[in-house]
Input
Amino acid sequence: MKETDREAVATAVQRVAGMLQRPDQLDKVEQYRRREARKKASVEARLKAAIQSQLDGVRTGLSQLHSALSDVKDIQRSLADVSQDWRQSINTIESLKDVKDAVVRHSQLAAAVENLKNIFSVPEIVRETRDLIEQGALLQAHRKLMDLECSRDGLLHEQYRMDSGNTRDMSLIHSYFGSTQALSDELAKQLWMVLQRCLGTVRRDPTLLVSVVRIIEREEKIDRRILDRKKQTGFVPPGRPKNWKEKMFTVLDRTVTTRIEGTQAGTRESDRMWLVRHLEIIRKYVLDDLIVAKNLMAQCFPPHYEMFSNLLRMYRQALSTRMQELAAEDLEANEIVSLLTWVLNTYTSAEMMGNAELVPEVDASNLEPLLSPNVVSALLDTYMSTLTSNIIAWLRKALETDRKDWVKETEPEADQDGYYQTTLPAIVFQMFEQNLQVASQISEDLKTKVLVLCLQQMNSFLSRYREEAQVYKEEHLRNRQHPHCYVQYMIAVINNCQTFKESVVSLKRKYLKSEGEAGVSLSQPSMDGLLDAIAKEGCGSLLEEVFLDLEQHLSELMTKKWLLGSNAVDIICVTVEDYFNDFAKIKKPYKKRMIAEAHRRVVVEYLRAVMQKRISFRSADERKEGAERMVREAEQLRFLFRKLASGSGEDVDGYCDTIIAVAEVIKLTDPSLLYLEVSTLVSKYPDIRDEHISALLAMRGDASRDMKQTIIETLEQGPAQASTDYVPIFKDIVVPSLNVAKLLK
Output
């Protein structure tokens, strides 16, 4: 307490010190004293009020405790009185046992008297009930059955109450009413038969279906009443609860399953379209059944049965089970397509679950899928595997068929523009088109996968196509008389390459949303390159055919016979022109390249003849005559290839200018200017080599060995640089080493 007083004094000192920090505050000491006095009085008043309130509460609590103690003593005295009265009444209760037994016997006899009429009329009621069931009067039959069961159950209940252990009397009642359970089973059988045909019954006689529902509802009420009584007495009559409502849904479920499974009308062995027919029948049956269920059948059942929702669930489950069974079979590729198209598209379309007559009860967008994603994926994998094998086989067969056409004695067909072609591109892309159309029916993803597969197999097919074209050429070279239409079919092979290109572009444009979709565009450059290679090799094969015929005439160039007046170049021009009349059937992109290559090869062969030292001029006159002849023949060749290239925009002057440039070196009369002329030639054709210059000087016949050596060494010191657009021509001309050795002697 003293510690508290000291703390209070210290606190007061601090507050006074805070108030009197300046001299002018001394004038307010009286004011401060009055204010503190008011605060003190207020605090004391609040303390007194709080203490008084606590005291009042304690006083009230003590009063209530005294009252409670008094009540407890009163209850204790009452319980003692009750206990004493109960002990005194035990003997009285035991003396009433005979009265209790009499009451039980009276109750049994009253029940027997009440059911006496029914007991004696049981056989007659059984007969009447059976007749009513056979006549189809189900409601009346059920009423009589209920009377029989009520009598039986009443007697059994009274016997159970009196002596539940007396099995003899219980068995006697069971035996007497033995036909009742048989009648119940027979009536149930009739109800299930009506429910199995409910979709037809509701169209013909909806009242019969309503009667069945009413009977089931009665039985449900009886089941509920008996189960409630069981909680009180523990007694349950025989055959209860019947659970006919639950059995009704089981029967409907089994009926739906049987209806779905029973729609298969054939097998693969008897009908290749068995699955398509099976699925179409299912579609029609399910749609018709659900429309009837929604518009007619649902009206015959109480709302809480939710009959349409339950039927919809049953049909969906039955369909799912059936689709899984079909998916587990060893289906062919076309059957997998039919199944997936039906499951993924038809099922939710307006032709089935999305039908306007089922809206709004059925929302097709929220229906669960009939097949799980894993099953669908497995089917797609199987389909893609089978399709891959089929495409490979189809392409191989198509190529074999086309290959057989190549040896025919008749020319290939021409398109509307007159270009030779075979049916191979049309067959191949018709097959691709059919498979892509089928895949489009299933999903966009599958369509893209099939397109990728087709293009991949197309690449492999083109490699085989290339090999077959090469074999075709080699067989022809072994016997150039066979096949008779070799040139025409090789032209068709070349044109097919262009058709393939155009068809691939068309296919991708039609079946791809965007060029970069699924990376398909990446395969195009490699395919184009392969097609160009096949066409290039085909053009090379045709040119090889041309030059085989020109070989004899090319060998006459730069010989004595040629110098004396050979018509070899005339024949070469006529032969080339004749061949290119046939080559006019080649499509433009490849024809243009072929003219350029033919032009180049003719010039190369001409220059090769120059470099092979078939002739060595002995005089200036011979050199002049030979050079002029070379110029005339170069112009002759230029005219030919200008004629062939007319309209193609091809520059045909460059190659022939090479012959003229070589002729200028030969024609030169002053040997001292030879180095300058050769330098000019080398600057124009940087790929010309030493052996070419040596052979050219040897052909002139007037250059000494020292002059040759000097020219070559001088030219080697400053080799010419080729321009970016220069096309080499001398690099393909090989000078025989033996001839070069002789030339340098």
